[in-house]
Design brief:
The complex is a heterodimer of chains A (315) and B (447). Chain A is built from 13 helices and no strands. Chain A is mostly helical and 315 residues long. Helix content of chain B is 47%, strand content 15%. In chain B, the strands form 2 sheets. Chain B has a 6-stranded mixed sheet with strand order 6-7-8-3-9-10, with helices on both faces. Chain B has a 4-stranded antiparallel sheet with strand order 2-1-4-5, covered by helices on one side. Chain B is globular, with a radius of gyration of 29 Å. The chains are: A mainly alpha (315), B alpha/beta (447).
C-alpha cells in the first residue's frame, strides 16, 4: 500500500518554523533596524513637504515607494539562491516546492508588515502631515500603510523570483541594482516617459505604489508651488530695468509676497496640474492595490515554476 | 526605383566578399587539420561553434554563436527602423550589449584556437582585428598545426562491445539493467553511461569505484530514479522508475557536501527531516522516539540543542547521514561520506555504515580512499571510461576478488589501471570491460 507522507499544507508550516528560526539564529532580523534607518534618512529629507504640496508629495511618495522596493528586494534577494543545493536535496526527499515558496510568502509577509509599521512610525516622528481623509479603510494612515505593505511585498516577491532563478548570491546581488534602477526609472510618475517606455511602466511595482500613495495623499487637491518657488528667488524691483512693464512687475511682487494671493495662485496651479493617474478615488486606489497583488501572485507562481526545475542543476 | 551605387560601395562590397572567401578557405583548412569535414566552413555562424569545439572551448563557442547570431539579427532590424524612434534607442543599447558579449566570447574562443595550435596569445590582436587573415594563416600554412592532443579528440576510438547481459529482478535485491544514460546538449547527444547490469542482495555494503568522469554520480542518480536512464531498475518486486513516488522514501541519498542549514539546531534539523521522510501514519510519539533513537545511534543526542554551524566535520557528516537514515531506507547511498575526515573518524563512520548494512539494507558508497576501509565492504562496482569516454562496468563482484581480477594489490592501483592515459592512468578500461563481460558470460550471465 502507498504510504502517505507529509502534504503541502503541513510542509508549509515546517518551513515557516525553519524560516523563523533563521530569523533569530541567522540574524535575519537585521532587515528591521535597516528599515528604520532608511526610513529615518528619507523622512529627514522629504517629510517636510510630504502631503503638503504637489511637488513635495510627488517627491515624497516616490521616495517612499523606493524605500518599500528597497526593503522588499533586500528581504528576499538572497533567500533562495543561498540555500539552493539544500533545496535540491530536500526536493529529492519529498519537499513540495509550492510549500517552500508559500512558507517564504508567509515569512516575508511578516517581515514586510514589520517594515511598514517601522516606516510609518518613523514618518510620524518626522512630523509628516498625513492626510485626514481615508478612502478604503476608516483611517488614512491605514490606507497608506496597506499601500506601503503591498508595494514592499510585491518587490519582495519579485526578488524572491530572481533568487529562485539565479544560482548564487553573487549573481543575485549583481542583478538587484538593475532591477532597482528599472523600477525607479519606469515608475511613470517622476520621469517623463513616452510611447513604448510609458507602456513599460504598467509592469513596474513602483508605478502602482507611487500612484496609490499620491491618490491617498490627495495629490490633485494640493497646491502646486513649483512656479512660486522659482519666482521667490526673483528680485521684482529689478524687473523694470530688464524691460518688464512696471504694472506686471508690481503684480508679480504681490503674487510672491502676499500670502493670500500666493495661496490662491498655488491652488490654481495645482488644479491645472491635475494628473488622472493620481486621482483620489476608491476605484483608483483599489485598482493600484489589485495590480500590486497581481504582481505578488505572478512572481510567487513564477518562483514555484522556476524552482520545480531545480533537479536539473548540475554540480 | 532609383538606386545610386557609387564606386565606394562597389569597393566595400568587393572587400567584404574577399574577406569572406579568404576566411572560408582558411576555416575549411582548419577543419581538415582537425581531421573533420571541410564543408562545415560554409555554414555561417555554426562554423565558429564547430571550431570552438575542436579548440576545447565548446561552451564558449555556444555563446559566441548565439551572440553572433543576435548581433546579425539586430543589425538587420537596425537598417529598417526609424532613427528617431524609441525602438531605435533600445536597439542601440541592445547592440552595444551584444557586441561587448560577442567580443568577450570571441577572445575566449580565439585564445582556445591559439592554444590548440600552440601559438602565442599575442595572435589574439590579429584575430580580433582581422579574423579572416588569421583563419587563412592558421588554415593554409603548414607550420600551423593543432597539437596531437587536440587532434586525438576526433579520432574514432574502439570501445569495448556491449555485453548483452541482462540480470533478473525479484527477491529483495536491487537489480540494475541500465542500457544507457545520455544527455542532449546543444543538439548533440552525449552518452554518460552504458551497459551496466548488476544485482545486489540486501545486507551487502558495496563500494562504487571509478575515476573522475566515469559516471559514478550518474549511476547513482539513475539507480535512485532521480535522473531516469534507459534502464530497468527494481528493488525487490518494485520498479524504482514506475513507483518512484513511493520508492523515493525507501532510498536514502547522502550527498558529498553537508547540505544543511547552519543556523538551525541539530534536533530541529533531524525533526524536520523526519517530517519530510516519515509516513504520516507514524504517531507523534513514535516519531519523537525515532528521532531520539537516531540521535543516540549517531552520537548526536548530547548536541541536540547545538546549532549545526557549531558542529565538527565528523559530527556534521553524521548528522547529514542521520537525516537520510531517519526513514530506515532499504537502499542507502552515500557520495564520499569520508571527504574531509581523518582516518580514525572515517573508519568509525564506515563501521557505522557496515552495521546499517547488517540490518538487511543495501549500502552503496563512493569513496576516494577505499583501501583503509576495504575490509568492511562485501562487493565492489568498478566503473571506467571506455575509449569513447562513456562510463562502463569494468567489474562487479566480491571485494576480496577484485584485486586478483585486475592483477593489482589495492583499490587505488585498480583505479590507476582503468584511468585514461591522459589522466595519468594505464588506460586499460576497455580491456577490463571485455574481461568482465567474458567472466559473467562464462559464469552463466549472472552479474
Amino acid at each position: 500500500m502507498n504510504k502517505m507522507h507529509t502534504g503541502r499544507f503541513a510542509q508549509t508550516f515546517i518551513y515557516v518554523g525553519k524560516l523563523f528560526r533563521m530569523f533569530i539564529y541567522r540574524n535575519d532580523w537585521k532587515v528591521l533596524p535597516m528599515a528604520a534607518i532608511i526610513a529615518g534618512l528619507v523622512s529627514y529629507v522629504v517629510a517636510g513637504n510630504l502631503f503638503r504640496t504637489m511637488e513635495g508629495t510627488l517627491r515624497g511618495t516616490f521616495a517612499l515607494s523606493c524605500i518599500c522596493i528597497w526593503n522588499g528586494f533586500f528581504n528576499s534577494i538572497q533567500s533562495v539562491c543561498r540555500e539552493r543545493p539544500i533545496i535540491k536535496r530536500e526536493h529529492r526527499s519529498g519537499l513540495h516546492i509550492s510549500s517552500y515558496i508559500m512558507a517564504h510568502m508567509i515569512y516575508q509577509g511578516f517581515l514586510c508588515i514589520c517594515q511598514t509599521v517601522i516606516t510609518m512610525i518613523v514618518l510620524n516622528y518626522a512630523k509628516a502631515a498625513f492626510p485626514t481623509n481615508s478612502f478604503i479603510t476608516s483611517s488614512a494612515l491605514f490606507d497608506i500603510g496597506i499601500t506601503m505593505f503591498l508595494t514592499t511585498y510585491a518587490a519582495d516577491m519579485l526578488a524572491l523570483f530572481v533568487s529562485s532563478i539565479v544560482r548564487n548570491t553573487t549573481t543575485a546581488m549583481t542583478v538587484m541594482p538593475f532591477l532597482m534602477i528599472f523600477q525607479l526609472i519606469f515608475s511613470g510618475g517622476f520621469f517623463q516617459l513616452q510611447g513604448a517606455a510609458l507602456a513599460v511602466t504598467d509592469f513596474t511595482i513602483s508605478k502602482w505604489g507611487l500612484s496609490a500613495l499620491c491618490a491617498e495623499g490627495n495629490y490633485n487637491d494640493l497646491p502646486n508651488g513649483a512656479i512660486l518657488t522659482a519666482m521667490s528667488a526673483m528680485d521684482t524691483n529689478k524687473l523694470t530695468d530688464e524691460g518688464v512693464p512696471a504694472d506686471v512687475s508690481i503684480a508679480l511682487d504681490k503674487l510672491v509676497k502676499d500670502p493670500e494671493i500666493r495661496e490662491a495662485f498655488m491652488k490654481k496651479c495645482g488644479e491645472l496640474s491635475y494628473n488622472g493617474k493620481f486621482e483620489s478615488s476608491e476605484e483608483n486606489i483599489l485598482f493600484c492595490w489589485f495590480n500590486l497583488i497581481l504582481s505578488t501572485v505572478v512572481f510567487a507562481c513564477l518562483s514555484v515554476i522556476s524552482l520545480e526545475f531545480i533537479d536539473r542543476d548540475r554540480r | 526605383m532609383n538606386v545610386n551605387i557609387g564606386i565606394a560601395d562597389i569597393i566595400n562590397v568587393s572587400f567584404n566578399l574577399l574577406t569572406y572567401i579568404v576566411g572560408v578557405i582558411g576555416m575549411w583548412n582548419i577543419f581538415l587539420k582537425f581531421g573533420s569535414k571541410g564543408y562545415y566552413a560554409l555554414i555561417p555562424i555554426a562554423n565558429i561553434y564547430r571550431i570552438s569545439e575542436y579548440a576545447g572551448r565548446e561552451k564558449d563557442g555556444r555563446f559566441l554563436m548565439l551572440f553572433d547570431f543576435s548581433v546579425k539579427i539586430v543589425s538587420i532590424v537596425f537598417a529598417v527602423i526609424d532613427e528617431n524612434s524609441t525602438e531605435y534607442n533600445i536597439l542601440v543599447m541592445l547592440l552595444i550589449l551584444l557586441t561587448i558579449c560577442d567580443l568577450l566570447y570571441s577572445v575566449r574562443v580565439y585564445i582556445g584556437i591559439c592554444k590548440a595550435f600552440e601559438k602565442s596569445k599575442l595572435w589574439i590582436i590579429l584575430w580580433l582585428t582581422a579574423d579572416w587573415i588569421c583563419f587563412f594563416i592558421f588554415g593554409v600554412f603548414k607550420s600551423f598545426r593543432p597539437s596531437e592532443e587536440y587532434r586525438d579528440v576526433l579520432k574514432k576510438a574502439e570501445a569495448a562491445e556491449l555485453s548483452g547481459i541482462v540480470v533478473p529482478g525479484g527477491d529483495s535485491r536491487l537489480s540494475v539493467n541500465l542500457r544507457q544514460r545520455s544527455v542532449r546538449s546543444f543538439f548533440r547527444k552525449f552518452t554518460l553511461l552504458r551497459d551496466v547490469h548488476l544485482s545486489i542482495p540486501t545486507g551487502h555494503m558495496v563500494l562504487l569505484l571509478g575515476g573522475s568522469g566515469a559516471g559514478k554520480t550518474t549511476f547513482l542518480n539513475a539507480v535512485t530514479g532521480y535522473e531516469k536512464a534507459d534502464a530497468d531498475i527494481s528493488l525487490g518486486s518494485l520498479d524504482i522508475y514506475k513507483d518512484y513516488k513511493r520508492m523515493k522514501y525507501d532510498i536514502g541519498f547522502v550527498p558529498q557536501q553537508d547540505l544543511m542549514r547552519d543556523h538551525d539546531t541539530v534536533y530541529r534539523t533531524i525533526a524536520d527531516a523526519a517530517s519530510l521522510r516519515l509516513p504520516i501514519s507514524i504517531s507523534g510519539r513514535e516519531r519523537t522516539e525515532r528521532i531520539k533513537a537516531i540521535l543516540d545511534e549517531f552520537g548526536l543526542y548530547p548536541l541536540k540543542d547545538s546549532l549545526v554551524s557549531k558542529l565538527s566535520g565528523g559530527q556534521r557528516k553524521r548528522l547529514s547521514i542521520a537525516m537520510e537514515y531517519i526513514s530506515y531506507p532499504t537502499l542507502f547511498i552515500l557520495d564520499e561520506p569520508d571527504s574531509g575526515l581523518d582516518g580514525v573518524v572515517a573508519r568509525g563512520l564506515f563501521e557505522k555504515l557496515r552495521s546499517i548494512a547488517d540490518t538487511n539494507k543495501i549500502v552503496m558508497v563512493i569513496t576516494h580512499t577505499p583501501d583503509r576501509v576495504i575490509d568492511l565492504f562485501d562487493d565492489v562496482i568498478v566503473l571506467a571510461k571506455d575509449a569513447e569516454r562513456t562510463g562502463r562496468l569494468a567489474y562487479y563482484g566480491p571485494a576480496a576478488e577484485a584485486a586478483s581480477f585486475f592483477g593489482k594489490n589495492s583499490m587505488e592501483e585498480i583505479l590507476l589501471s582503468i584511468n585514461q592515459v591522459d589522466e595519468g592512468g594505464e588506460g586499460r578500461a576497455d580491456e577490463f570491460v571485455r574481461k568482465y563481460t567474458n567472466l559473467v558470460k562464462t559464469a552463466g550471465g549472472e552479474a
